[in-house]
Design a protein that fits this description.
Blueprint: H1 4-21, H2 25-34, H3 48-55, H4 57-86, H5 93-98, H6 103-121, H7 134-144, H8 146-163, H9 166-187, H10 192-212, H11 214-222, H12 233-237
Length: 240
């Protein structure tokens, strides 16, 4: 339960993170480089894969980098807010990023990252029509456990190479997240509260990604989900 002293900074951090997350770089960069609305082409998803399809490799790379960085920025700003209001965490930015010194720090990272993801999926500035949150979630994973991030990213890359289906690879990777998080925390000798908190947050993140990928799940079940790099018209309409 959130204590009274945590209430105000929690509200400030959540609001700031949502507003930062609402900056949809996929929409911005596709408009700049291709003079299009990424939501009107390809899959209609405001995400990196559709930017690649609509505008090319460079805008897609920028989208990935900026979507990742915006979550990191939101979390760093939230940690600063909490440090000012409650003294939780460290005033050392690098220590805040790479060291989970207590459950409160993990909570702050998750709170901020979660609302940044919500902003990405339902952006205030773009009619609440955004992306699916995979890259933003990966940044949150990195901020909570960079070891789990490396494991899940490796699984994602292997899955893409084998299946060539981005959405399936993302779902396989996110499915491994709770296990990777549990294993990394346990191997590091984390206390019970860290083990429970980290694994629970990982389960919530995985659930959100599965929810945003419901259309992809239906196409995967029907065998109609296209493969990455395909050029035909049917594949240009539907993908992650």
């Amino acid at each position: 339960m959130i204590s009274a002293e945590f209430l105000l900074p929690s509200l400030l951090a959540a609001t700031a993170s949502y507003l930062i997350g609402s900056v949809s770089f996929s929409i911005i960069f596709t408009r700049i480089f291709a003079k299009k609305d990424v939501r009107q082409v390809g899959s209609g998803n405001a995400g990196m894969t559709n930017v690649l399809r609509a505008a090319g490799k460079f805008p897609a790379g920028l989208t990935f980098a900026c979507d990742f960085i915006k979550c990191v920025a939101a979390i760093c700003f939230s940690l600063f807010i909490f440090n000012v209001f409650t003294g939780v965490g460290s005033s050392d930015v690098l220590n805040n990023i790479f060291v989970n010194s207590n459950v409160e720090v993990i909570f702050i990272k998750f709170l901020s990252g979660l609302f940044c993801m919500i902003g990405h999926i339902y952006p205030l500035y773009f009619g609440f029509r955004g992306g699916k949150g995979v890259v933003t979630m990966s940044a949150l994973v990195f901020m909570i456990s960079w070891q789990a991030y490396i494991i899940c990213m490796s699984i994602f890359l292997i899955a893409v190479i084998i299946s060539r289906i981005v959405s399936l690879s993302a779902l396989i990777s996110v499915s491994s997240l709770p296990f990777a998080t549990f294993g990394v925390t346990w191997a590091a000798g984390g206390k019970t509260e860290f083990l429970i908190a980290n694994t629970l947050f990982a389960l919530v993140m995985a659930a959100i990604i599965y929810i945003t990928h419901i259309p992809n799940l239906k196409r995967l079940a029907a065998g109609t989900e296209p493969k990455f790099g395909s050029k035909n018209a049917a594949e240009s309409k539907k993908n992650e």
